[in-house]
Write a structure and sequence with these properties.
22 helices, Rossmann fold, about 675 residues, 3 domains, elongated, alpha/beta, six-stranded parallel beta sheet
């Protein structure tokens, strides 16, 4: 059966169903693009919605992310590629919340470069073994896409850093934007290889693929499409500086459901849609929806969780217990405060170190008693800003230890080498307080991991000499600018830019009573353990199903070119307005009320000359002469202006200033309602 999704605007004008000729286009198993693609339409592929009958009746979820949840390396013996699941990948972890009966297919890039002559074999292996579809991006194009547009433009801007100088993110580069569009187009082609549009759900992740929804919606008007942004979404005052702001907003609105971690991120997005696209939203029964050309784009607010099972399995490892014992002996008699951050400009490592220095100056009793362990993971980006963060971090650590330390004792222990997961978890276990002072972060799951690890288990309690039946305890000091902050009501929230306030918060965390630590930990553990990654994924899928529930009921037409493409969705009862029917009804009726708008109806919108012309005045007089008609002109313009312009239309009623002032037919004076 052919679904009634139309791609030609002429279909909307005629009201007729189009005829579909030819077979559905077949896509190669592996498709690569050697150069750049422009933003214009792909003329070789028209937008048709689910024209081919589904070959698969079972519902599937196609998860699309920048990287596949796989690890790849070459076998040293035979040089062949070896692949395994990346257990740390969120895209793999969320599968636990989708149900065993829902087949999951992944689309994304590999972390390693694969030679052109190996790509066919690798793609076939990954599809058959892991149900993964790799998108092979040429190295030069990937550099412009990821290290260029994503990391130089989107990432800083979404974290509130404007390119005020070439050193701060860099000026907008159109070639980088074209590379971004090109890579998104490649991802769309990969999805097209495996999608069954009548049955499958597509879930796109993060800012790397924000224009992908347009390419997918153009191919299939009724695709069931969700998008989740894992980074912050900036305020409209920041976002509006992006030269391609409208293109990205319109692309996101081609999704059925758009997810954000916090209410603030969603509020900023809605504000941008209102200020830049003139769209309004409604909130009904707890759901937020944007009306966009007849479609309702749903907005979901839910912070992601962690994979508790993975952490608990690592907590049970003998290596973890051995590392905990080692750290227990290393820091015996000292209170450990822990920071775990990437080495980039937004994580606030230097601010945390300055607060530690302030703490030691204001509370000298903590010298020799407190240790700050700072785990600095390698930065995901690159550039001078990363080097500056590293230099400042090393210099500050050295200054603090030289000033307040002593032989055999450093107040700040900086770990800048990669750690195994069990080693990091061991630090969580022995830390009395966890500090997160990022100046801006989309979510940050470090506090959640810390809470679960502090819950521990019997074996770790025995290692630390704790009573397994005793209540657990933990303390958190978190920045108010990170996504997890609203969900951690028991944490001490700080403005990381206020060094004195952070230092006082660190001191408060050290002196708070044991009972208070237990209460805060219990509250946090109850939330984190019930709002894990499976809960988040399950909730998103439920809302996506609801958002796509009326797809088959609506009539759809795709209009627009390039990234301006959108779908007009109409109720099945919609019919084209017939001029003949209106004329017939006009002649049959005995009493007619005719309400006419001025701007945009009698006069073109945006016209420099707003004075009514002779033709418009003549039409109004002709309508008013018919005794069966009552004609009113409604306008936001001032009553004096309307009275002056239409003084010759004695039988014309005027509603000035959007109806606040009314002049009925044949009356001179105005009245206020």
């Amino acid at each position: 059966m052919v679904s009634r999704s139309y791609s030609n605007l002429l279909d909307l004008a005629s009201g007729d169903s189009p005829s579909f000729g030819g077979e559905r286009k077949r896509f190669p198993r592996v498709a690569t693009v050697p150069g750049l693609l422009s933003e214009v339409d792909d003329d070789t592929c028209n937008s048709v919605g689910s024209e081919a009958p589904s070959s698969v009746s079972q519902e599937r979820m196609i998860i699309v992310g920048n990287q596949l949840p796989l690890r790849a390396h070459r076998n040293e013996d035979n040089g062949e590629w070896c692949f395994s699941w990346d257990e740390d990948s969120l895209l793999l972890q969320l599968k636990d919340g989708l149900g065993e009966d829902l087949e999951v297919i992944y689309v994304g890039c590999l972390k390693e470069q694969v030679a052109l002559n190996e790509q066919d074999d690798v793609a076939q292996t990954l599809l058959e073994t892991f149900k993964c579809v790799p998108a092979f991006i040429p190295p030069e194009l990937f550099t412009k896409f990821y290290h260029g547009f994503c990391k130089q433009h989107l990432w800083p801007l979404f974290h509130y850093m404007l390119p005020l100088s070439p050193d701060l993110g860099g000026r907008f580069d159109r070639s980088l934007w074209q590379a971004y569009v090109s890579v998104n187009k490649i991802f769309a082609d990969k999805v097209m290889e495996v999608i069954s549009p009548d049955d499958d759900y597509v879930w796109v992740h993060d800012y790397h693929l924000m224009v992908l929804p347009t390419f997918l919606r153009k191919r299939f008007n009724r695709v069931k499409l969700g998008f989740f942004l894992h980074s912050p979404f900036p305020s409209s005052e920041i976002y509006r500086t992006l030269p391609v702001r409208d293109e990205i907003l319109r692309a996101l609105l081609n999704s059925d459901l758009i997810g954000f971690h916090t209410f603030d991120y969603a509020r900023h997005f809605l504000s941008c849609c209102g200020r830049m696209l003139g769209l309004s939203y409604q909130s009904k029964r707890g759901y937020i929806g944007l009306e966009y050309y007849g479609r309702t784009v749903s907005i979901k607010i839910l912070p992601v969780g962690i994979h508790i099972g993975q952490l608990q399995s690592v907590l049970n490892l003998p290596e973890t217990a051995a590392k905990v014992a080692e750290l227990r002996d290393q820091f015996r008699g000292q209170t450990v405060m822990l920071g775990v951050d990437d080495m980039d400009i937004f994580k606030g490592i230097s601010l945390k170190l300055l607060a530690m220095e302030q703490l030691l100056m204001q509370h000298p009793e903590n010298r020799g008693e407190v240790v700050l362990v700072q785990i600095a993971n390698p930065a995901r980006g690159r550039g001078r800003d990363v080097q500056e963060v590293q230099s400042e971090t090393y210099a500050t650590v050295k200054r603090i230890n030289n000033r307040f330390g002593r032989p055999g004792y450093d107040l700040v222990v900086l770990i800048d080498t990669p750690l195994q997961l069990y080693e990091r978890i061991a630090y969580y276990v022995i830390a009395e307080c966890c500090l997160v002072t990022a100046v801006r972060d989309g979510m940050n799951l470090i506090p959640y991991e810390y809470i679960i690890c502090r819950q521990g288990n019997e074996k770790l309690d025995e290692t630390l000499g704790l009573d397994p039946s005793a209540p657990k305890k933990s303390m958190l000091v978190v920045s108010e600018f990170i996504g997890c902050s609203p969900s951690l009501s028991g944490a001490i929230r700080v403005n990381p830019w206020n060094i004195d306030a952070v230092a006082e918060a660190m001191d408060s965390a050290l002196i708070v009573s044991e009972a208070e630590k237990q209460l805060r930990h219990e509250k946090h553990y109850r939330y984190v353990s019930t709002h894990d990654v499976a809960y988040w994924a399950r909730s998103f899928l439920q809302d996506l199903e609801r958002a796509c529930g009326d797809h088959l009921r609506r009539r759809c037409w795709g209009i627009g070119f390039g990234l301006g493409f959108r779908v007009i969705a109409l109720d099945p009862n919609f019919r084209k307005l017939s001029v003949e029917h209106i004329v017939s009804a006009y002649r049959r009726t005995k009493n007619r009320a005719i309400l006419l708008d001025y701007d945009g109806t009698l006069m073109p919108t945006g016209s420099l000359n707003t004075t009514p012309n002779i033709e418009a005045v003549g039409i109004l007089n002709n309508l008013c002469q018919d005794p069966k008609n009552v004609v009113f002109l409604v306008s936001r313009k001032d009553r004096k202006i309307l009275t002056e312009w239409f003084s010759c239309c004695k039988k014309l009623g005027l509603a000035a200033e959007n109806g606040y002032f009314i002049r009925c037919a044949s009356l001179i004076s105005s009245s206020i309602l």
